[in-house]
Structure formats: C-alpha cells, structure tokens
Amino acid sequence: MPSDLRPLGWDEEWAAAFASYAAAGLLPARVGRVDRGRLEVHLRPSETVHAVAHLEAGAAVEDQPAVGDWVAVDPRSDGAVVTGVLPRRTLIVRSSAGRRSEGQAMAANVDTVLIAVPLEREARLAQLERFLTVGWESGARPVVVLTKSDVVDHDEIDVALLRAREAAPGVQVLAVSAETRTGTDALRSAIGATTAVVGQSGAGKSTLVNALAGAEVMATQATRQDGKGRHTTTARELIPLPSGGVLIDTPGLRGIGVHDASDGVAQSFSDIEALAEECRFRDCTHETEPGCAVTAAIDDGALTRRRLDSYRKQLREVEWAGRRNAADARAAHAKRWAEQTAHGKGHGRGVH
Ligand SMILES: Nc1nc2c(ncn2[C@@H]2O[C@H](COP(=O)(O)OP(=O)(O)OP(=O)(O)O)[C@@H](O)[C@H]2O)c(=O)[nH]1
Ligand SMILES: [Zn+2]
C-alpha cells in the first residue's frame, strides 16, 4: 500500500477497494481539481499531474471524476489516464441548472462539511439550515463553525451558539476566531480526514482554510518538466493539512443549493419529522388540525415558527426541483420521439 498517500486520506479500506486495479498495474491517485474534463490528480500529497478520464461508455455525469475522488491512473508516456473511479463514500451533488435530473458531482469522499456562519452579522438561520441539508444529503457529517468570534462579546457568542444549536439539532457547533486562533484547536479535532468548507460569501471560509492549513497552502508549489507532457502544478482545491487529512475548497461548492435533497431535508429537520409522527392525522399539514404535535411544540416553545417555515420552504424547493426534473424528462422524451418520427418520415419519402 502506497503509504505516502495516507496524508491524502488513503486507508486500508481504499486499498482493499483498489486491489483489482493494483493487480492490473494501475496507480491510485486523488483528484485535486477538475476543469472541463481536464483533471489534476495527486499521486503524492504535494504534487499533481495532469490526467484525462477514459471511463466506460455510458458513464453518467455523476460518475465522472470529481474533486476528492480516488481514481485508478494509467501512467502512460503521453499523459496520465484515469480508467476507474473507486466507489464513493459520500458525494456532494449540485443539480446542474436547466439540465435533467442528472446532478453534477462537486466533491467526493468528504467526511466533514464545515458550515461557516459569520458572527458579526445577524445569523441567517434558514441559510444555515440549507447548508445543513446539503451536508446531510451528501452523507458527510456537518459541523457548524461560528466564525470571527473576536468581533463580538461573550454574551453574543453564547446567544449565537444557542440559536445555531436550535437550527442544527445533533450537530456540533463551535465558535472560532481565525484572527486570534481561539477555538481552532477544537476545530482541528472536530474535522475528519477530508473536510469541505461551505458558507455564504464573506463568512470567513478562506481565512478558516488558511488558518487550518498554515503555511502548507503556499508550500505545495512545485514544478517539474520531464519532457513527457507531465508537469506538476498547485492544486489549491484539495489542500493537504500539516496535521494530516485534506481540505476541499472548490469554487462550485460555495453557492450550493438544496435542490433534490429530500433525505437531507429529513435529517436537517429530524426534530420536526419526529414530532409529525405524533400528529393525530398521518397527512397532517400542521396548520389547524386537532391533535397536531408540531403546532403543540410551537405553542409550548419547544419549536420556533421560524424553523417550521424554513422546513416547509425547503420541502417546497425539493418538490419543485422534482417536478422540474420530471417535466424536463418528459420534454426530452417527446423530443426524442419527434426526432425518431421525423427520421422515419424521411426514410418513407426516400422509398416512395
Ligand atoms: N476579525 C476577524 N475577521 C475575519 C476572521 N475571519 C475572516 N475575517 C474577515 O472576514 C472577511 C471575509 O473573509 P473571507 O475568508 O474572505 O470569507 P469567504 O467566506 O472566503 O468569502 P468568499 O470568498 O466571498 O466566499 C475578510 O475581510 C476577513 O479578513 C476572523 O476570525 N476575525
Ligand atoms: Zn401536525
């Protein structure tokens, strides 16, 4: 097992999954960057090579290598070729705008999703709940990081922690200052082998990444030209950490939405879904029905109206995305049918 891949998150399980590729003489590598079909893959932590993917025909958009994927590389003289992608442990997907239900793989094999929420602004809890849904949906563990704790006083931090915990039941919530490094040790011990950072613009993500990565972000620059069309470059999107593990910070992750994340919504709002189980009517809308456990929880203060509204909004969004996907699928089917019919007519005219 190539032990120098360990800092990138390689472990016994990955090695086992790779066994048949290894037997075929292929090398394991981790995808550090994807740019329109061009890949940069890490064969070693601090060094990447360019590669192209040659996967089996019929591979879906989602099956294409994404940042964080472990891949099998065939190191040919005219450039590295990715011939296989190991089954993913987790996947952050973005449904591509205007496209059919196919999602775009944004980041693979993320263990921990750090959701950065800036303390200097009034917390937008509904937005936090959306990032939580994206995190849960991917299969990773979300962690909420209240950033810039140096700009507010202790009481404000306490209130913010309470509010964030209300919006993120069962999720670890930390307050951190990248400026004074308060809380960064606790953050380091809260993250897994592969960590992605999400959050609104200005939330302090880049600053957080730099604080966690230390000088390492800058130190990955290395150049080697061996005349065989291979050279190394900096892959800033997969950042090896001095303490081990990697950070994933791809631009596309930053503005990700809820879309088709129905499981994620259920996990983000597990408290409301558990309450709804107790409603007298199975199809309770939690509006005016008698015996509604959800409105009862609002009445006795266990649940906020704000959170119920946020839950409903996410449900509507998921439902809307589902309907749009179904409509797109129908339109695509109709188009194919029309093309086939036109094709058939053409033949008909040719014959007669
Ligand atoms: N006082 C203080 N300021 C911080 C801290 N972390 C970030 N900032 C400031 O907050 C601003 C935004 O930080 P960034 O790290 O650029 O935020 P971002 O989330 O990466 O923003 P985008 O790139 O727009 O998505 C910058 O002016 C930082 O200097 C902190 O811990 N304390
Ligand atoms: Zn109800």
Structure notes:
This protein is an alpha/beta fold. It has three domains: 3-104, Nucleic acid-binding proteins (OB fold (Dihydrolipoamide Acetyltransferase, E2P), Beta Barrel); 105-253, P-loop containing nucleotide triphosphate hydrolases (Rossmann fold); 262-346, Ribonucleotide Reductase Protein R1, domain 1. Helices cover 37% and strands 22% of the residues. The protein contains ten helices and 13 strands. The strands form three sheets. It has a six-stranded mixed β-sheet, with helices on both faces. A hairpin with a 2-residue loop joins strand 2 and strand 3 (47-53). Mean pLDDT is 83; it is low at 218-235 and 346-352. The chain binds guanosine-5'-triphosphate and zinc ion. Guanosine-5'-triphosphate binds at residues 116, 147-148, 150-151, 177-179, 199, 201-207, 254. Zinc ion is lined by residues 276, 279, 284, 286, 289, 292-294. Monomer. Associates with 30S ribosomal subunit, binds 16S rRNA. It is found in: Cytoplasm.
Q: Which features characterize this protein?
A:
6-stranded mixed sheet; 3 domains; alpha/beta; 352 residues; metal-binding; single chain; G_CP_dom; OB fold (Dihydrolipoamide Acetyltransferase, E2P); binds zinc ion; P-loop_NTPase; Rossmann fold; Ribonucleotide Reductase Protein R1, domain 1; binds guanosine-5'-triphosphate; RNA-binding; 5-stranded mixed beta barrel; Ribosome_biogen_GTPase_RsgA
Provide a compact summary of the structure.
The protein has 352 residues and is α/β, with parallel strands linked by helices. Helices cover 37% and strands 22% of the residues. It folds into 3 domains: 102 residues, OB fold (Dihydrolipoamide Acetyltransferase, E2P) (Beta Barrel); 149 residues, Rossmann fold (3-Layer(aba) Sandwich); 85 residues, Ribonucleotide Reductase Protein R1, domain 1.
